[in-house]
Amino acid sequence: MHLNRLTLAFRIPAYRWLWANSFAGAAGFMPYMMGQGWLIFEITDSPLLVGLAPAIGSVANMAFSPLGGVIADRLDRRSVLMVTQSLAASAILVLGVLAITGLVQFWHIVIIAVVHRTAMGLQLTTRNTLMYDVVGPRVFMNAIAGQFMSTHGAAVLGPLAGGIIISVFGVGYLFLVLGSIIMLGSLFLLRVPRVPAAKPIGSAWANLKEGVNFALRNRPVRAVLFTVLITDGLGFSTQSMFPVVTRDVLHAGPIVLGLLSTLRGAGGVVGALIVSSLGDIRSKGWLFTGAAFLFGTLLVGFAFSSILQLSLVLIFLVGSFATIYDTLAHTLLQTMAPEAMRGRIMGLYSFVVSGIGIGALGLGAITSWLGVKWAIAAAGGTVAGNALLTVPMAPTLNKQSLDRMEE
Questions:
Q1: Complete domains list, the chain, with CATH
Q2: What is the pLDDT of residues 263-285, one digit of tens each?
Q3: Is the pTM of this model over 0.85?
Q4: What gap in Å lies between CA 143 and CA 323, rounded to an integer?
Q5: How many distinct helices (H) and strands (E) make up the chain?
């Protein structure tokens, strides 16, 4: 790997603070989702309800994400990111207090999931557009890969540490720790300068319609967003079933649950390092579709493994190709979108990514009916099949991304 390419974005001071902010957010988010699933499974013993809470949160995310894209194009992105990250941290802290005091009920978890996922959706839109502002188009793929290194780097130790905290102290104390870390991370944004950006004209409603119309009429952007809908909505949602896999397939407890998420995160770090080392490659469309296909195929293998060691290896590889795919999705969308519309396109990206929660609900229902192995296998097979259908669009994705960068 080329060291100069790996560190390209890190030469920009503002990016380093954004990276630290992303690390703090991921250090809280990954174990939070794991702890949320464990808490629900503990108090309800229902795989369906394990998927229901993130699904309801995703509906709220879907409702607000397109508007979040308009906000990211119209308001100061740094301020929006600070407010939304603080809101997410506060929601997790409240859940921790409820769990520790023994007052927590399922409906509490649902309400907090709605607040948390709405805030996270706005963060995703705002952080990525702000990052593009800071580093520019030619360094963006390296920068977004670096962000995934931070998120998955946090996931390497975070879930395992979370599993230990749950085992020793209880899930409520895990939430208190996570909320505090995320709140601290929001302060890092004070070191990121405000970056003037092109602002849309007209009303917020007109801006939203303009963004939706552009995405629907632009075939390459539409193809990427549809692939994200399938790949994230089904493939990424399989992580919500890790508590069920841990208990019912691998016959283990919270430590193994944390280890599954940790190794998926370690694979993500490796995938991000691979992308960073490639530099500003021209064949982004081919890499995007190929990584999505391998991600889905490996999920099918993971679904039918009941051997702990094999499952850990497969989930590591799943994490690697998931990150390569996700990095290319972000890069293609940001480089193909007009300058004044990047926030709205990322708002639509956040909208379709919200399908993760709905996918989790579907997986919970299939798991209750056919078992968790068939649920994850069906998700992985659908992701791989959709990636094959997207292959003919790869040359067009390559060309439009390059054309935008040369304008």
A1: 3-190+203-406 (1.20.1250.20)
A2: 887 888 888 888 877 766 777 88
A3: no
A4: 13
A5: 17, 0
